[in-house]
Amino acid sequence: MELRQLRQFVVLAEERSFSAAALRLFIAQPALSVAIRKLEEEIDAKLFIRGSRGVRLTAAGDAVLKAARRCLESAQGIKEAARLATAGESGTLHIGVSGSVTVRLLPTLVQAFSPQYPKVRLELREGTNLELLSMVETGTLDLGFVRIPVNRPPELRFQLVEEDRLCLALPRGHALTKRSAIPLAELEGLPFIGYAPSPVGGLHTAVSQVLQRAGVAPRITQEAVQVQTALGLVASGLGIAMVPAANTPYQRSSGAVFRPIADLPADTRIGIALAYHSRNENPVLHRFLEVSEEQAQTVPKREVLKRQ
């Protein structure tokens, strides 16, 4: 039994005439008669009562008509499901994020993406830069939100979604909070919250480069893996930290006070990029990259540091 036979049967049931049904199906009437006879033989039931004024369904034909329509609708649903998946309009996207990305950037992109592609399921997983890049390389993740600068494995591609700058996070009441902007030289010998070294780079690399270029050596008291951890240590009074500036309007409640770095080199750049494998064939990935690029172009530059 083929879908073509079922469609011919349904059209004949609707038209109640071999000639009208054949015309609608764009086939010869004898060919339609043969097809219906073969279907009846295969089902082992008479489906139509033939008469001088056309045909009408038997009891078996009426039952088969309901089932045939459901079958044809299911087949159309299969075709539509395949079309949506091929176009990247349905399916699953496995995304890896670091903690601070969930504060603002991830919600912004998801709110832009999901209304356009409501049939796509987003599955999120949290990790460090190293963990995310590893999972993207192995195919466990379709893409990862990673902090740059980062060492770039040759088979991975990176799409920048947000440029950022470093600023200082200080404990409330610290003497340097009286300054509107703080020169790097002021950090010499002060208790400082650094970031744990990573073989793929990230904030540890960015902060270390800034301090080395300035010839400044603060006293490292703690090392954090995530920005939110560093802010908690700052709020506890354990030291000063350099943190990305973009999220600071959403981190006032952390207990830290934020100030710009007065002499931060102009070529110091950090940010967030989407890392994905060059051989990833998930169509949904490319839809998400398109939406992310559109958002990166439309979001205006914001003043992220205000006097506290």
Automatic annotation (TrEMBL):
Q: Which GO terms describe its molecular function?
A: DNA binding; DNA-binding transcription factor activity
SUPFAM superfamilies in the record: Periplasmic binding protein-like II, Winged helix' DNA-binding domain
UniProt KW keywords: DNA-binding, Transcription, Transcription regulation
Q: Is DNA-binding among this UniProt entry's keywords?
A: yes
- Which part of the chain is the HTH lysR-type domain? 1-58
* GO CC entries: protein-DNA complex
Q: Which Pfam families match?
A: HTH_1, LysR_substrate
Q: Which family does the similarity line name?
A: Belongs to the LysR transcriptional regulatory family.
Protein name, please?
DNA-binding transcriptional LysR family regulator
